[in-house]
Amino acid sequence: MQRLHGTLQHYAWGTTDAIPELLGLSPDGRPYAEYWLGAHPQSPSRTATAALDRLVNDDPALLGEKVHAAFGTQLPFLMKVLSARHALSIQAHPSRELAEEGFARENAAGIPLDAAERVYSDAWPKPEILIALEEFETLLGFRDPMTSAALFSGLGVSDELQSVIGPLTERKGPAALAEVFLDVLSLEGERGRLVDVVVSAAMRHAQDRGPVGEFARTAIELDEVFPGDRGILAALLMNRIRLGPGEAVYVPAGRMHAHLRGTGIEVMANSDNVIRGGLTPKHVDVGELVRVVGFEPEQPEVLRPVRSRPGVQRYRTPCREFDVWRLAPGGEAVPLPGEGSARILLAVEGELELLGDGGPTALRRGESLLLGAAEQAEVAGTGVAFATASGVR
Known about the structure:
This protein is α+β, with helices and mostly antiparallel strands. It contains twelve helices and 21 strands. The protein has three domains: 2-139 and 243-292, Sandwich (Jelly Rolls); 144-236; 306-389, Jelly Rolls (Sandwich), CATH 2.60.120.
């Protein structure tokens, strides 16, 4: 059992206060977007003795036998605290097969890892789960195309946008969404003004109740951050989801999403592969989007943790790289789940105590611990923590 110290990421979309408050830091005016707990080589966490990627490489037994066999000498998951004050880019993540192929292809082409046109930073997939610590809003997956067509009609822009959104009613399902989404990304010149047409119409409906009002407010919100960006029209094809504290969404490979605002725990496979589709000044590779993104319309499921024993709730996903639990022992000691895998534990409320072979270890809000696969421990106290292990144990 070792203290773990994460790394901070100061991306422009981050909030200035939520992560410093959690970690007991004084805000300094900079955006604090993410706090990484893991062994990704781009920004590994540290123990008192070494960076976590080096620690895992030098002592694979830390991972667990089955985890090592499945993933080699890599911690397969990455835990983050994410805090957004405005929308992130529209993005999707690749499957393992596409990540391995894409990473090898870009390496063979001699594209530097830090090049602006680089798409794949590693050979790993990036399925992920976002668990809200407060009210959290996100865009996730594509809504039914007929519903999107009706919402554009509700803004009164169907005629002016017919050349772009016509396939929503003329074609079916994934084909309709793919055609419109990819057409939107190519808007230029006179057609580019269609974004302003939609935003102007949205202003007139900003106070409407119901779906049309929310649709209008989404357009306005995005335009305030990305004025005139064609990605706004792409985003308006997606479902807007509101999560309460403790609720979550799972984002598998190929699912378009764009987190809008809020603070949460994000757990993912140990990857930083992002294929962007708009609302960003960064590189958008339309060809790779076509390969990676699934355009099937869907209504995403809001996940709630399932009680596995008193004080322990699990977020069920099909992911092999990670498993996630919410721990709230309420004063009674409960076994720490995930034995057989290396685990990372992050306290988000109150105070907890880890009871293990080395004696009791205090864990206060914002603090983290690393436990090896063979370590057994119990968690006691009145605080709340999130624990992550590999899904293979």
